[in-house]
Amino acid sequence: MSNLGSSVKALVFDVFGTVVDWRGGIMREVAALNRAKGLDLDAARFADDWRAGYQPAMQRVRSGELPWTRIDDLHRLILDGLLQKHGVGGLDEAEKAELNRAWHRLDPWPDAIAGLTRLKRRFIIGTLSNGNVGLLVNMAKRAGLPWDVVLSAELAHHYKPDPEAYRMPPDLLGLANGEVMLVAAHPNDLAAAAMQGLKTGFVPRPLEHGPGRKPAPAAEHRFDIVAMDFNELAERLGA
Predict the structure, then answer these.
(1) Of the candidates 199, 139, 191, which has an alpha carbon nearest to the alpha carbon of residue 15?
(2) Every domain of the chain and the residues it spans
(3) Would you put residue 149 in left (φ > 0), alpha (ψ -120 to 50) or beta?
(4) What CATH code would you report for 4-21+107-236?
C-alpha cells in the first residue's frame, strides 16, 4: 500500500478517455446513424474529427472569442461543422440534438466500475472533467458510474488546464490541495494539476485513440502513482 493512501482523502477523475471510451462510443453512434439514414460515414474518422475539435473549441472560450460555453454546446458547434464537412444533409434538429448527446452515452472501460467501487469504499470519488454537469450526470446514470460527487469545469467557468479548474475540487470539498488526487490518462492534465498542488495518478489507456495509435508520451513526467487500471490503482492505494 502506498503512503498516499493515508494522506489522500479524495480522488477526482478525468472522464473522457480515462474513465470512458469516447472513441468507441462515438463510432457506435455513427454506425447506428449510417444504418438509420442510409449513410456511409467512416465512423472512426468521424469520431476522431469530432474529438479533434474539442481543444480548439475550448481555446476559443479561454481566449475570450466565445463567452463561457458548456461542452454540450461546443460539441454541437463542432458537430454542425462536421456534418457539413462530411456532406451529411437531411438531419432535422431533433436528430442532430440526439447525435450530439452521444457524448452522454459513452461506455466505461472494462475495469472502471469495479475499480471505482473499490476506491469509493476508502475515498471520496468524483469527476473533474471539462464535460458539463448534465452530461456527466447522464453518463453516470446510464453507465452505473458510482460517483460521490460530480464536479465539472462548468462550476469554475474555466476549462482544464486553467488553474482555477484544479483548485475547485479541494475548495468545494473542504480539503487541502494535497489531499486530492487527479487520476487521468493524459500526462499534460496531470502536470497542470500538480502545479496547483494536487497529487497525481497516471492510468494509461493505450486504446483511447484506437488500436495501433500511440498514447501520449509520459516518460518526461513524474507522477505520484502509476497504475495500469483502476483495480491496480485501488490495490496500490489500499482500497
Answers:
(1) 139
(2) 4-21+107-236, 22-104
(3) beta
(4) 3.40.50.1000
* Interacting residues of 151 by C-beta distance below 8 A, sequence separation 6+: 12, 126, 127, 128, 129, 168, 169, 172
| CA distance linking residue 227 with residue 201, whole number of Å | 8
**Cell numbers for 141:** 446514470
Q: What is the pLDDT along the chain (239 residues), one digit of tens a residue?
A: 557 768 999 999 999 999 999 999 999 999 999 999 999 999 999 999 999 999 999 999 999 999 999 999 999 999 999 999 999 988 999 999 999 999 999 999 999 999 999 999 999 999 999 999 999 999 999 999 999 999 999 999 999 999 999 999 999 999 999 999 999 999 999 999 999 999 999 999 999 999 877 766 666 678 999 999 999 999 999 99
Alpha helices in the chain (DSSP H): 4-7, 22-37, 43-52, 54-62, 71-85, 93-100, 112-120, 133-143, 153-156, 163-173, 187-195, 230-236
Classify 22-104 by CATH class.
mainly alpha
CB count within 10 Å of CB 69 equals: 17
List all residues 6 or more positions away from 33 whose beta carbon is below 8 Å from its beta carbon. 39, 41, 99
With contact defined as beta carbons under 8 Å apart, do 165 and 153 qualify? Answer: yes
Whose cell is 485501488? That residue is 234
